[in-house]
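Dear support,

Our group has been running a series of protein-ligand predictions, and this particular one with zinc ion is the one our PI (initials K.S.) wants archived with full inputs and outputs. We had some confusion internally about which version of the output was final, so please treat the block below as the authoritative record. The input we submitted was:
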Amino acid sequence: MQLSNTQQRIDHVRRDLLKRLFGVTALATLCTNLPFNAAYAGVDSLKVADATPQKITEHLYLLAARGAWPTHENQGFFANIYFVKTPKGIVVLDTGTSVHIGEMALRAIKKQFNQPVIAVFNSHYHGDHWLGNGAFKTAFPEAPIYAHPDAKIAIENAVGAEWLEQMMKATEGAVKGTQVVAPTEGVTHGQIFDFGGVQLKVHSYGQAHSPVDIMIEIVNDKALYVGDVIMEKRIGNPSETSFKGYIKTLNIIQTEMPEHLLLPGHGKPGKGELLQAYQDIMNGIYDNAVKGVAEGLDISQTKELALKDPRIHQHAKSIAGFEEFGKFVSIAYTQAEMDAF
Ligand SMILES: [Zn+2]
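Confirmed final output from the archive:
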């Protein structure tokens, strides 16, 4: 029974992923007219240029990504990596899109802290957040790599290899040499890790951005690593989004951690303004989808309705990925229809 449930979950995750990846594949095909292998010949050096981690709070450091989307130029470094400095060593929150990015992060750790890596967390199974795991596994084989238990299962199965393949295409080979290294241990909601007095707490509220989101609270610093549950001035592909789950999770953050510094996987850290923007967008989309369904509007009429909503309108020009807005509405509409059924 357990096995068949697990298999069903994997199949579901895989189907969702394939749907989502179709867009990425089409984009990669458009971006290069070169055959797949020939495109790789243009890669001069796979080494990622060094960067200095930025101190954010007492224990927290940010290794900032270089752009909102994966390109050949940024070598796929489009998701942030965070370090938590503890008396026992360094804890790494997400590892980037390639082994080369992971190696660059390791060089930064050595230079800035000269402490070992004692643990790694992956926020979810999208490849920009864990494909750098291999670098850490090689350098610190004893350090556990924590994630949502279903993220571990999915990456160990088809999802891991598929993400690697897609990132190879999106960066035209800049992540070459990267291997799928899955998380080693599942974590649960409320779990607390104590690293010499610096405490990290796991928050997991079900599907929001993806089916396997976890957020990591750095308790001492009143900070929360939100992965892709909140991004700064960016929306990502919504194919795996649950709008009701999103709204629930954002409300929990607002109620339980109103003063926390929010650390996004994409964009700059911030406080309430990051949360407010995402609440505007997600509530704005879903409320209009519910209204559209109730009033018998079709999806394009519902999209027009949502675009006129001031909660959406005010962010439209400043948000990367807004061209995906129609997809958000269409998915929200389907979910609102199911809720009304
Ligand atoms: Zn991401």
